Each structure stands twice: as structure tokens, then as C-alpha cells.
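FAQ: What does the model actually see?

It sees only this:
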Amino acid sequence: MDWRDLNRFKANNRGSEFYATCLEYAQYLWRQRLPARAILCLDRAWGADLNGGEPILKAWPLPYQALVRILVKAPGECFLGNPPVHFQHYADRLGPPREEQRKWRSWACWALSRKALPDFPGDLKHEVELPSLDTIESQLATHGHPGEAKLWQNVLDQIQPRRANLPKY
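And it is asked to produce this:
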């Protein structure tokens, strides 16, 4: 697989097939030992145009658990980047379509990243108001799919933080 597998989808055709392809490509990149790039594919999956009732979401729920697995299992010699900073910047820069939904998913991923990688520094130069966990949960309940806030909270509650010799980029 490569970038062309995602690029074939037009902006108005990013539903279930796009979502499945994003997850498949993320898995492919993970198996190639490219965790940072796999996370970028998960970003694309969260941006798919789904309403929450699609059959694919029953088999493959929104990939919060997949993100955490990448964060805590990435080999130390592989480039991971700084996921908390990535999601902090991403959340603050998103625009249409579904801006609020995508923004709060990014903040949700920021919170997962901060808990999974507590030794990774945030970006203190980026002037943005960091949301509380309660705010993230509330906004996911408002703007996300039915049950998404609970899914995210369950993943957050199960995280065992990684404190290891990971390079901090």
C-alpha cells in the first residue's frame, strides 16, 4: 500500500470504504515499523464522513484503542514524533468539514497521548487553551457519534503509561 490508496478518494467520497482503507493502511504502516505515519492514517480515519450507524463501525470502532496500542508498543528505535504536540496542533488548526467533531476527536487523542506518553513534553510556545478531560468528554458526547464519548473514556481509563527510553523529537 501507499499514499495512492487514500488519494483515490475524492473529498465527497470519504465514507465507509475510505475509513476501512485508512485503517488498513495504518495497519500496513505499523507492520512496516512506521508508527508516526500510521498515526497520520488514523487521523484520516477519524475524519471519515460517518454518522455512527455504519456497519463497519461495529466491526472496527473509531481507532482510539489502536492509537494507544501504537503509542505504548512502538519500538524505541522507530520514529514516533511527539504525538501530544501533534494532536495539540492538529486540534487547533482544523477547519471544515465537521470541524467541531474532528477538533474534539483530536483533543481526545491529545489526552490519550498525554496519558500514554507522560514523559513527552507539550508545546509551551503554542498558545491554546488546553481542555479538561471533562470538557473533551462532553464535547465528544455533543459532536461525536452515539457512544463515542464512552468508547474514548473506556480507552483512556485502561491506559498503562509508557515510561521508556523513547526518543523525544
